[in-house]
Amino acid sequence: MTIAFWSQEDGCGMTSGMAAIASICSDVWNLRTILVQSRNQRGDLCKRLRHTPSVPMTRKDCPNHIELVSDIWDELFWLLKQHRLTKAMLLHCMVPVVPGRLYYLPQGEYQKQRAYQPSVKNGVRQIIRCVEQLSDLTMIDCGNGSDSLSMDLMAQADAVVIGISQERQNLDAYFQNRQIFPGNVIYLVNAYHSESIFNRKNLNRIYRLHEEELAVIPHNPVFRQVSEKGKIEQFICRHKDCRVFDRQFYFMQELIHTAGMVLHAAGVPIPKPGSGIGNGKAELC
Prior knowledge:
Radius of gyration: 19 Å
């Protein structure tokens, strides 16, 4: 299953929100989850999960020639063109956050544009399909703003998570011209303030959203700090079983509820622990 994350404006915290939801799916429900962040937006996924740099790859065009590859996406496109991309190679390109359960594909060099050649979009789609074969869940950070690649990825996704704020001007600007997608849509408020005029109840009422369409991740200074330090997964793992008396209990309950809503929108039932089905066989994609 593929879930796309996108926001109309910058600063909605979609990357940290996606990393937190992915960590819940991995650490609480043992789903093998892979996060993808392509070069069509300025992302910081590696900063939210772990500062481990990607392993430099080498391209062997012939036995006597080895070329160092600095951009993972360039290498993946090249392997696709040569019909040499395997699941094992793709997994090797990824950074393991939790080996066997949670990975991310490093972002390539930033090259956002309004329109993309069909060959580029087709190549990205092929790589996403390969990633899907390795995981139970594939989550794609589509960044913010409109471009043809992001729109294409969201149109192909099983569910789309759209980041919204609690500011009237931005809300009106989006909902007056909101996008229509074939898959189910979840609206997500990151750093949610329940005391805001645009709280959950009023957002549902003013913009005619059903309860199952609106999810929140509460404002939490501690979570913001660990996010900036690249320790989101460690925070989730540490607090996933916290009790009522723990100061992170409310935050974790809301986050787990939000992750469950996202899975439900994608048509994925909340599994029992240990039921992940991802694999890493060395087959051609």
